[in-house]
């Protein structure tokens, strides 16, 4: 298939700029995986659409305040987006500046911090933080939540909480696993009371998730890499769900990528590493039976993954229905369940 096959027209006003007042107040489009039939529901209807035998798989990554601002020695403004913290003192980052900083130069930040530019690695810069302070501590002190490019506003204090899942635990993402944003503690408790089991994987979402596919031929696209971790306890939970006749329900495309990356040997196995798995129609899923997700950008790798999980024509028809029914799109928008 081609990149243009995944294009659709979205009215700009349907891009959610803020979350709803309550996490669990979103609408949810339910799509039957076999027939492609859709129905308009509320997120809380998830309780009746899932079975007590099912297993929910969440991504427990935690968004770091990865955007910082500074100045070069020349006085020029610099915007830094940390892509990955390598160790206590070093990070890989994207840098926006009128001229790219050279190796050996310094970038002065707020509160007396500074980064030394070590060098360049492809489209990323390696930065070092001198002194005893760690990179994560610096970001916690002066960093900003890195809202996606389609949210046309500066980050606000409320984003510190709302652009983060209530179960976030392992710091390292620069974008939220947005399907998880709908779940509040009340909903988690209600799912547990129904008897649903849950488990966690980790996939640190990188800024590459927003990187446009620049080639029409999808076989020529190079997928960005993201760190993932799948524990033995999660492997065991998946096996137990299958044994009792339940479904493995991935909460978000990031949970799908983690599970399927850990299944490249043919079945799910515990593992830790980087994944550049690119899922497009024709891919055979090994570890996921149902998908709860948000609506995704036109021509994005995430929409391609969703179209691989269900029938392509049915997914694109569902998106047209969502637009006609004025669903809210993207990170702070409404949800979709494919089961």
Structure description:
20% of the residues lie in helices and 27% in strands. Helix 7 (301-309) crosses helix 8. The strands form three sheets. It has a nine-stranded mixed beta sheet, with helices on one face. The protein has a six-stranded antiparallel barrel with strand order 5-6-7-10-9-8. The chain has helices spanning 46-49, 135-142, 159-162, 185-194, 232-243, 253-261, 301-309, 312-324; strands at residues 27-31, 38-42, 55-59, 61-63, 67-72, 77-85, 90-97, 106-109, 114-121, 124-128, 170-173, 197-203, 226-230, 248-251, 271-275, 290-294, 335-338. It has 339 residues and is α/β, with parallel strands linked by helices. It is globular. The chain contains eight helices and 17 strands. Transfers and isomerizes the ribose moiety from AdoMet to the 7-aminomethyl group of 7-deazaguanine (preQ1-tRNA) to give epoxyqueuosine (oQ-tRNA).
